[in-house]
Amino acid sequence: xxxxxxxxxxxxxxxxxxxxxxxxxxxxxxxxxxxxxxxxxxxxxxxxxxxxxxxxxxxxxxxxxxxxxxxxxxxxxxxxxxxxxxxxxxxxxxxxxxxxxxxxxxxxxxxxxxxxxxxxxxxxxxxxxxxxxxxxxxxxxxxxxxxxxxxxxxxxxxxxxxxxxxxxxx
Length: 170
Known about the structure:
Helix content: 25-40%
Number of domains: 1
Order of helices and strands: HHEHHEHEHEH
CATH superfamily: NADH Oxidase
Number of strands: 4
CATH class: Alpha Beta
CATH architecture: 3-Layer(aba) Sandwich
Strand order of the largest sheet: 1-2-4-3
Strand content: 15-25%
Shape: globular
Oligomer: single chain
Distance between the termini: 26 Å
Radius of gyration: 17 Å
């Protein structure tokens, strides 16, 4: 039961078809994230999801930089990916919080692809203004934003990945 074919078909489109993607449409993607491994089972990932039909959709579009906003405006929903950096285990800084957050999002991306949807994550956004809008404590940091939706765009024919011999030392 390999998921490799689903992983290989995933790509990050720059165009979406403006159809709404409700929370219910991608709830299983958040469930996939929920089951990710984490140090001391701290589960430091948190998400905010706003569908295209939600009142806050336009507000969420105000945080990406202009270059990202241009194509994100047509997506079906926007997820904000947050990392809770204070450990529930000992109240100290959780040095693996961001890493664990990435694991959760990786699982989420596989499920989004399996659902026949697409996503595109961005780091180009105003994290301070977004954190203020969301009323986040200092211990919860915005890691990324993710556009989710449907697209007719095809992946680039020349997608490149480093060969395993470069990535894995043996």
